[in-house]
Amino acid sequence: MVKNTRNGRRARLIQLEGVNKHFGHLHVLKDINLTVKSGEKLVVIGPSGSGKSTLIRCMNLLEKPSSGKVTVDGVDITAHKALVAKVRQSVAMVFQQFNLYPHKTVLENLTLAPMLIKKVPQAEAVKAGLAYLDRVGLKEKANVYPSQLSGGQQQRVAIARALAMRPKIMLFDEPTSALDPEMIQEVLDVMVDLAHEGITMVVVTHEMGFAKTVADRVIFMDDGLIVEENSPQRFFENPTHERTKSFLSRILR
Amino acid sequence: MVGPFAWFKWEALFRDWTVFAEGLKTTIMVAVLSLALALILGIVFGVLGTSQWKLAKLVSRIYVEFIQNTPLVIQVYFLYHGLPHMDVMIPVFAVGVLGVGVYHGAYIAEVVRAGIDSIHKGQMEAALSQGFSFWGAMRHVILPQASRIVLPPLTNQAVNLIKNTSVLAMVAGGDLMYRADSWSSDNLYYGPAYVAIGLLYLLLCLPLATLTRRLEGKTGVSS
Ligand SMILES: Nc1ncnc2c1ncn2[C@@H]1O[C@H](COP(=O)(O)OP(=O)(O)OP(=O)(O)O)[C@@H](O)[C@H]1O
Ligand SMILES: [Mg+2]
C-alpha cells in the first residue's frame, strides 16, 4: 500500500519539543521531540514501561510534562493558564479500559459532552449520537447500559463517544489490550475505517497488522526515548536498532 | 412515696405541651439547616480532599482532623463563649446551626472523599479528555456515581446530626433537650420530660435509620 508519508504541506497538529516527564526520580520521557501532521496515522510501539502511555497522555495534558512544550492545533497547552479544556474538545482519547460512564446509557454516553460542553441541542446530539452508533454497528444498543455490553462492544461505543465530539485528533492507548482475542478484530475494523477517513490518529498498540496497514509512521520507544522512527515497511522489514530488532523478534515470533 | 413517673407529672407535661412543641420546632429547624450546611461543607471539602492540588488537600485534611478530634461541646462553647470575646456576636440559633453543621460537615467530607476515591480514576480522565472542567466532571460524572455509594453512610450521618443538636441545651439553645432540662428543673418532673423527648428524638431518627438500612441492603445486593 502506498501512502503519502512525506507531505510537507500538511499542518502540524501536534508538536512535542524537548518534553521530559519525571515521576519522582523515575525519568519516564527523555527530551522527546515529535511532530504529528494533520491526517497522519502515527503508531507507537515499545515494551511495557517504556513511556508510551505517558507520551500519548502528554498530548492532551492528562499527564503534565515536567519540562518542554506541547503544541496542539496551534495552542501551547503547556503554557501557564492555557485553555486546556478547550483544546481537549478536539482531541479525543480512547482508553485501554474503555472508561464509559456506567451510570449513563450508551446513547447518553455519546450525547453528554456534546450537549454540556459544546452546547449542541439535545435533538441534534441524539441524532448525531445514533449515527455514530450506527457507524460502529451498535445502533440497536443505544438504550442499554455499558455493563450490558461485551468488551469489544464497549470499546466500539467508546470510539463512537470520541467521534461524537467531532475531534481533529484521536488518541488510542492500547485500545485492544483489555479485550478477549475474539473481540479484537471488531474494534480494529472500526479503527481501520476511521483511518481511511483522514482523521489524525496516534495509536499505541501491539497490533502489528494494524500498524502495517494503517500507519504512515511507526515510532519505537524504549526507556523513555524514541529509539527508532520510520515508515512501517522499513520499520518491520529493516529495523536498524538492536533494541528494535530484539523487541520485534519477541512479539512477531 | 411518689414515683418518678407518677401520673400527675405526665398530666403536667401534657398541660405544658407547647413548651415541648417549641423545642421540637427548634430542633427540627436546627437539624435541617445544619444538615444543609454540613452537606455543602462535606461535598466541597470531600472533593478538595481528592484533588491533585496539594494546598486544597491540606486544607481539607486540617478541617477534617481538627473537627473530628475535638469534642462538639467545646466547638459549640467556642462559638458561644469564645467568639464574643473577639467581638463576634451570633445568636444562639446560629450557634447551633454553625456548630452542628461544621461538625458533621467534617464527617460527611470523609464519607464523600471515600465515595469519590472508590470511583475508578479512568472516569475522571475520560471526562477531562472530553473537555469537562474538574468541577464539571465532578458534577456530571463522578458525584452521580459516588452518590450511590455515599447515600447509606450519609443518612446515617443525618441521624447522628439530629441527636447531636441536643448539644444546644448546653448553651440555652431552646431545643428539645433544653426545654426538657429547664421545664423539669423547675418542677423536678425529670422522668416524664426525658422519656417524652427521648421518644420524640426516636420519632425523628427511626425513619432515617430504617432508610439507611434499606439503602445499605440495596447497594449490598447490586455490588
Ligand atoms: N502516575 C504515575 N506515578 C508514578 N509512576 C508512573 C505513573 N505513571 C506511569 N509511571 C511509570 O512510568 C513508566 C512509564 O509508564 P507508561 O505507562 O508510560 O509505560 P507504557 O509504555 O505505557 O507501558 P505499558 O505497555 O505497560 O502500558 C513506568 O515505569 C510506570 O511505572
Ligand atoms: Mg501504557
What attributes characterize this protein structure?
heterodimer, A: 253 residues, alpha/beta, 9 helices, 25% strand, globular, B: 223 residues, mainly alpha, MetI-like fold, 82% helix, 0% strand, binds adenosine-5'-triphosphate, binds magnesium ion
Task: Lay out the secondary structure.
The complex is a heterodimer of chains A (253) and B (223).
Chain A: E1 12-23, E2 26-37, E3 41-45, H1 52-58, E4 67-72, E5 75-76, H2 84-88, E6 91-94, H3 106-117, H4 122-135, H5 151-163, E7 169-173, H6 181-196, E8 200-204, H7 208-214, E9 217-222, E10 225-230, H8 232-237, H9 242-251
Parallel strand pairs in A: 3-8, 3-9, 6-7, 7-8
Antiparallel strand pairs in A: 1-2, 1-4, 4-5, 9-10
Helix pairs in contact in A: 3-4, 3-5, 4-5, 5-6
Chain B: H1 7-15, H2 17-50, H3 54-68, H4 72-85, H5 92-117, H6 121-129, H7 134-164, H8 176-187, H9 190-222
The structure holds adenosine-5'-triphosphate (ATP) and magnesium ion.
Task: Write a structural description.
The complex is a heterodimer of chains A (253) and B (223). With 253 residues, chain A is of the alpha/beta class. Chain A is 36% helix and 25% strand. In chain A, strand 7, helix 6 and strand 8 form a beta-alpha-beta unit. The longest helix of chain A has 16 residues. Chain A is globular. By secondary structure, chain B is an all-alpha fold. Chain B has a domain of 155 residues: MetI-like (MetI-like fold, Orthogonal Bundle). Helices cover 82% and strands 0% of the residues of chain B. Chain B contains nine helices and no strands. In chain B, helix 2 runs parallel beside helix 5, helix 2 packs antiparallel against helix 8 and helix 4 crosses helix 5. The longest helix of chain B is centred in the N-terminal third of the chain and has 34 residues. The N and C termini of chain B lie far apart (59 Å). The model of chain B has no long low-confidence stretch (mean pLDDT 92). At the A-B interface, helix 2, strand 6 and helix 3 of A face helix 6 and helix 7 of B. The site of magnesium ion (MG) has 4 residues of chain A, from helix 1.
